[in-house]
TrEMBL record:
Keywords: Membrane, Transmembrane, Transmembrane helix. Residues 337-407 form the PAS domain. Residues 636-890 form the EAL domain. It comes from Keguizhuia sedimenti. This is EAL domain-containing protein. InterPro entries: Biofilm_reg_signaling, EAL_dom, EAL_sf, GGDEF_dom, His-kinase-like_sensor, Nucleotide_cyclase, PAC, PAS. The chain crosses the membrane at residues 13-37, 296-318.
Length: 897
């Protein structure tokens, strides 16, 4: 899941956004602060300018007032001078004159004049008493002594009780000669000034003060907080003092008032040349009130902006949070769905899926696990894995260690146990499980039950090396065992024997009793041999009725006959299969390592050869391989390779053996017998090559040639006067199986023009028994052609009499093995007699083969046999010889009797 990354991403975006807004707000704040600071400076400057202007303006106004007063004083001084000049001052007139002037001066409430001695002599209005007190003051001496002293402002007189200051503007009065005549005073008080002062708008907590050059306040607006008018209070401001000390007559300062504690911007200015100074102060609070208002508005705007941006940020953050929450919910739902899907997949999986934590305890266990191992989920969760069988703990632990410590994914085949203790084969894939932090916290295992597959593999492996029927080792395995035995023999100076067994007449058992009886017999034989061989020896089935035993660790080959005797004894006891008592015998061939060969294939071939020699020797015996066998084998090989060429080169010829009627002594037929005129070996008899032709399949074209040649010869003879002669032709079982026999017979008859009734087809009993239905079908078709059928070598096989009926056979040929000893052997005689009786009862003709003397002939005649053949009459000869014999015989049928 990518959730942490999404969250981090969103977190980064929020932080970035918040930072941007913060920076924006800081910038706005800084701008606003700077702007406010600048505005404040402006306001301060404006206040300074304003105080300067106000003090200037007020000082001018006061100076104008002083000038008006001075004009009045000058006028009065002039009047006094004129009156002195005209005889002296008339007090009444002069007072009246002064009163006139006073009336024109609204800000003056008394005009008083002294004489040259300082006595207040004239005047009207208020404050006469103060004028007397002024005499002796510094200004007085100035005015008296300086004729040009101009307007002089007297020292203020403070009335502490009233809180008022009284002061006077004075001018020297002269006599006509210019000498000092007295002083004219215009009285004014702080109240007058306060009117002027209060006319100024100095704002809240502003101040307008008139003070003396000794820093004594003469008038102040507004009054002090305690109601005092402040006159007489001394200004203590060090800054003001310093400024005065520096000789400045005007300046603008910022200071905190020592009288009322208010901070102000103040400008002061000396009024003309008077000792009076005017001070205008605008309180910081006042001049900054607007600034503060603007600041407040700016602050409000800023905070509105800030709040707005914070709101936007919060909204954006919340929105992001909501979206993130939604996304998380979506992701969680997707995770839940995925988990649910995983749960369903895991639980419905046909594969066993379980998980274990780091300590090896089971943390998950699906239904397939329950089915596969037999433990329910509730039983195993939180417990160690119960499926590890005893002895496999270390293996399981090693897997777990590799996954957890080396982070390996393991796929392996293991054996585990079910609840009932049975073992099952599994293919397991194991991989580490990690938590959200990426740490390994356990592992997952997915297991499939491969017990059946493993069993099948084992079975395939077994079958690859064993025979399916008997479960004995097969040729592959026995070869391996031989190699091991040979290697051991090399080291120890020992011998190894390959003993090749072939069951005698097994084919007949198979054919007569069926394959299942044959199979059961082979199983039983295998079992007996198995129980007889030593542990170090190996018995195997080579196929069919062939067995091979590897006898290991032989010190001497002399021991082998006694070992074979042991086997023979074991096999001599009859077998009981499916209700049949089956006595068996074996033909055995033996080849020795290293004497006869150094490899398995060579020795097997030689043991096989030796086995055939045992067969040739009459079966139920054994033969050791000798080199002569090899020579014979080579002959056979040459025969095999020469057979095909023989047909192409026309090396075959037919010899004919006469068949005699016992009743007439006349030749009634001829058995066609093939011969091979080999370019080097001369005339080769069929016993040497027919079985090879059968093995190779060449018997089919060879048999076709025989049929055609026999028919051709039969017709030729018939045309030459050998009439009514039956030509008997031997058929091989291969011709039934591989060839289109009926078609071949028809062709032979058609091509030759032979009378089908003169063609006799000889079949051995084994031909009849193999593939019965197929052979029956073929034979019925052949019979339909009107050809005759005879059973060759009758009495040697396992044929059933019922077949004889079904086959519609014409003749039984009694095998020569019964015939040749007929005279001496009562058993043979009995057999021959029985066959003749059976044939008679079935209305079949009998023919006895192998009549070698006249006694046999006589005995057969006496027994009622119909026909006979044998060397007593004639050996098989070529067509020319046969014809000669025939002609000779026909003329004197009883010649040999
Ligand atoms: N499928 C085919 N089989 C054929 C053909 N030609 C011959 N054969 C079979 O080969 C076997 C050997 O035959 P052969 O060497 O020719 O021997 C035959 C006779 O010579 C021999 N015989 C006849 N009379 C006597 C006798 O008095 N004593 C004695 N020891 N041998 C004798 O018997 C052979 C004929 O036997 P049978 O066929 O059973 O009648 C042999 O099995 C032939 O069948 C062929 O063309 N096709």
């Amino acid at each position: 899941m990518q959730l942490p990354n999404l969250s981090r991403l969103r977190g980064n975006m929020v932080v970035r956004m918040a930072l941007s807004l913060l920076i924006l707000n800081v910038a706005i704040f800084a701008l606003a602060a700077f702007s406010l600071y600048e505005t404040r400076i402006q306001y301060e400057r404006r206040a300074e300018v304003e105080t300067r202007n106000l003090v200037q303006s007020l000082a001018s106004k006061i100076q104008a007032d002083f000038h008006t007063i001075d004009l009045a004083l000058l006028t009065i001084a002039d009047e006094a001078e004129r009156q002195y000049d005209t005889g002296g001052i008339d007090k009444a007139v002069f007072d009246a004159f002064i009163e006139q002037q006073l009336a024109r001066l609204p800000k003056v409430d008394g005009l008083w004049a002294t004489d040259a001695d300082g006595r207040v002599a004239y005047g009207v209005g208020l404050a006469r008493e103060y004028v007397a007190a002024l005499v002796g003051d510094g200004h007085y001496a100035l005015l008296r002594n300086d004729a040009n002293s101009g307007l002089v402002v007297s020292k203020a007189i403070i009335d502490p009780e009233k809180g008022q200051a009284q002061f006077f503007l004075a001018r020297r009065m002269n006599y006509l000669d210019g000498t000092f005549a007295g002083i004219i005073y215009a009285h004014t008080g702080s109240a007058q000034f306060i009117k002027n002062l209060s006319a100024l708008d100095v704002g809240s907590k502003g101040v307008v003060s008139l003070f003396n050059d000794d820093f004594t306040i003469l008038a102040r607006y507004p009054a002090l907080a305690d109601g005092n008018r402040a006159a007489g209070v001394r200004i203590a401001s060090p800054l003001l003092h310093e400024t005065f000390a520096a000789g400045k007559s005007n300046a603008t300062l910022r200071s905190v008032s020592d009288t009322d504690g208010v901070e102000r911007v103040v400008s002061f200015r000396q009024i003309g040349d008077t000792p009076l100074n005017l001070l205008v102060g605008i309180s910081t609070e006042s001049y900054l009130a607007r600034w503060k208002k603007e600041s407040a508005i700016t602050s409000v705007i800023f905070f509105v902006v800030l709040s707005f941006s914070l709101s936007i940020l919060m909204y954006w953050g919340l929105r992001k949070q909501m979206l993130a929450k939604k996304k998380i919910e979506q992701v969680n739902r997707a995770i839940d769905a995925e988990n649910e899907m995983n749960r369903i997949i895991v639980h419905s999986s046909p594969l066993a899926i379980y998980t274990r934590d780091k300590n090896g305890l089971v943390t998950a266990w699906n239904q397939a696990c329950e089915r596969m191992f037999g433990w329910a989920e509730a039983e195993v969760i939180g417990t160690p894995l119960p499926t590890v069988p005893p002895g496999k703990e270390d293996e399981s632990e090693e897997f777990r260690r590799q996954i957890l410590e080396r982070d390996r994914t393991i796929q392996t085949e293991v054996q585990r146990q079910r609840r009932d203790g049975t073992l099952i084969d599994l293919i397991v894939t194991m991989a580490a499980l990690r938590n959200a932090a990426g740490e390994i916290e356990g592992y997952l295992a997915i297991a499939a039950d491969i017990t059946e597959r493993k069993a099948a593999e084992k079975r395939v492996e077994f079958l690859a090396h064993h025979d399916t029927l008997t479960e004995l080792p097969n040729r592959l395995l026995v070869r391996d065992r031989f190699n091991q035995a040979a290697a051991y023999a090399d080291r120890e100076g020992k011998k190894v024997a390959l003993v090749f067994f072939d069951l005698d007449h097994f084919k007949a058992i198979n054919d007569s009793l069926g394959h299942s009886v044959g199979d059961d017999l082979l199983i039983e034989i295998a079992s007996r041999l198995k129980s007889t061989v030593r542990l170090i020896d190996t018995i195997s089935r080579q196929g069919g009725d062939e067995f091979l035993i590897v006898l290991s660790n032989l010190s001497d080959a002399d021991i082998i006959p006694s070992i074979l005797g042991k086997y023979k004894k074991k096999l001599q006891e009859p077998f009981y299969i499916d209700g049949n008592e089956l006595p068996i015998s074996m033909s055995i061939g033996v080849a020795l390592y290293p004497d006869d060969g150094m490899d398995f294939d060579t020795l097997l071939k030689k043991a096989d050869m030796a086995m055939y020699r045992a067969k040739d020797a009459g079966r139920n015996t054994y033969r050791f391989f000798d080199e002569q066998m090899n020579v014979e084998a080579m002959d056979q090989l040459l025969i095999r390779s020469g057979l095909r060429r023989a047909l192409e080169r026309g090396e075959f010829e037919l010899h004919y053996e006469p068949q005699i009627s016992l009743a007439t002594g006349k030749i009634v037929g001829a058995e066609a017998l093939i011969r091979w005129r080999h370019p080097e070996q001369g005339l080769v008899h069929p016993a040497k090559f027919i079985h090879i032709a059968e093995e190779s399949g060449l018997i089919v074209p060879i048999g076709e040639w025989v049929l055609k040649e026999a028919c051709r010869q039969g017709v030729e003879w018939a045309e030459q006067g050998l009439e009514g002669l039956t030509i008997a032709v031997n058929l091989s079982v291969m011709q039934f199986r591989r060839g289109d026999l009926e078609k071949t017979v028809i062709q032979a008859l058609d091509e030759s023009g032979m009378d089908p009734r003169l063609l006799e087809l000889e079949l051995t009993e084994s031909v009849l028994i193999q593939d019965v239905e197929n052979v029956l079908g073929s034979m019925h078709e052949l019979k339909a052609l009107d050809v005759k059928l005879s059973i060759d070598d009758f009495g040697t096989g396992y044929s059933s009499l019922s077949y004889l009926k079904r086959l519609d056979v014409d003749k039984l040929k009694i095998d020569k093995s019964f015939v040749c000893d007929l005279v001496r052997d009562a058993d043979d005689r009995a057999i021959v007699n029985a066959i003749i009786q059976i044939a008679r009862s079935l209305n079949l003709t009998t023919l006895a083969e192998g009549v070698e003397d006249v006694k046999i002939y006589a005995a057969l005649k006496e027994m009622g046999c119909d026909e006979c053949q044998g060397f007593y009459f004639s050996r098989p000869g070529n067509a020319k010889n046969f014809k000669a014999y025939y002609l000779d015989r026909q003329d004197n049928p009883l010649k040999m009797m």
